[in-house]
Amino acid sequence: MSKFRKYISEFIGTMVLVFMGCGSAVFLGAEVGGGHLAVALAFGLSIVAMAYVIGNVSGCHINPAVSLGALLDKRISVADFCGYVVFQVAGAIAGAAILCALSEIVGIDHTRTLGSNLVAGAGGIGGAFLIEGVLTFIFVLTILGITADESKGNVAGIVIGLTLTFVHIVGIPLTGTSVNPARSIGPAIFARGEALTDLWVFIAAPLAGAILAAIVYKLVIHTKVAKAKK
Question: In angstroms, rounded to a whole number, what is the distance separating the alpha carbons of residues 197 and 110?
Answer without folding.
Answer: 17
